Amino acid sequence: MSRKLRVYPQTTPLRGTITVPGDKSVSHRSIMLGALANGKSYIRRWLPAGDPRSTLQIFRQMGVNIAVQENSATSWDLEIDGVGLHGLQPSDRALDSRNAGTCIRLLAGIMAGQNFSSILDGSEQLRNRPMRRIIVPLQQMGANIRSSNDKAPLYIEPAELQPITYELPVASAQIKSCVLLAGLYVNGTTRIVEPGPARDHTERMLTAMGVDVQTNGNTISLTPPSELRPLDLTVPADISSAAFPLIAAAIIPHSEITIENCGQNETRTGILEILEMMGAELTVTNQQVTGGEPAADLAITFSEMHGANIGGEVVVRAIDEFPILAVALSQAAGKSTVRDAAELRVKEVDRISVLAGELAKMGVTMDEHPDGFTIEGPIHLQGAEVESHDDHRLGMSLAVAALAANAPTIIGEANCVADSFPGFVETMNALGARMEWLD
Ligand code: S3P
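^ thats the input. predicted complex w/ shikimate-3-phosphate below
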């Protein structure tokens, strides 16, 4: 199914207080680790988006009982009957991660430690994404994992795993987490050296489950327990989803919005630091801890922003926000350059060249670099017919750009926004936007 979204130019300010759905990274991990625990895990405000639903489906397929209470289209409560580290059941069908890179890469770490074979697969889009980054460390641990051209499908056979010390070639939470999860199935301590601080949700969740995970500077070490304690957590709102209404309010004159109980893990707050660097009017209040993760209310008001040079360690802490940040930079005064962000080229799509192509249709000149881009703003955006390329964050970024355009914009294949943000359109409209599905 492919649906088009029409977005009208925003002639009134965006106003109001909203919540956005639960964190996608935490939601994936809560299923995986809840399934491997001994006993019942309780997960509240779980994100029922396309990506984590793949994870939920896969663990059900491996015999895990997961009871769902659908509180709304954007928030489910789960009760996961953990089967223990060695209780998963083989499946005669491939485990289908669909579009979810986090699902397949973390799952590979778990499946490498099982005493049965599995096939890990996904959509055409996922089959194009690099898997060598997880195959290499898993093979170093002794895993029996095969693929053709280092792409999905991945064929995993049982093997005895050994602990390794692995220096990550890129700062990536997916690679780090894959190795840590495989590390639950070795005798001894697994060590990972990170080049920079990638999101640490796996470490936090494992710690809450009683696992000995130590972080010392750039080195993380994990010594596996005999069993995992179950989880009891409320998922904080996803800062990566919050970024869309936040930046919409930052660029639409006189807007003023608040997003409640939003994740503030400092491995994820790079976008807030960048917006502040650009002169955004941002206030953080009501700080709390939700599900072992810091969270807070975020308020933003429209302001005239200026461009910025963005590079270095903040990039990985804002890695999913660059498509929407490009929209913010197009509305900021002056030249902005993004560097050190080559990873954007291996996300759902090449988020540098595909975004440049789509934003060009709206009048934006985005000069590409191998590891980033340059934009000079402010640019008067034009309404256009654009495509999401089945990338949720591109779809939402184009929808926010469309609010600042001079005429209506139509976004093709926009239903993919529900891969991470079910209710995106309703949430934006609750703030006063005018977005409508065309079919
Ligand atoms: C994620 C890690 C990041 C991020 C992705 C979610 C995770 O990917 O882009 O959306 O949940 O671990 P990389 O590890 O490939 O940077």
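The chain has a mean pLDDT of 98.
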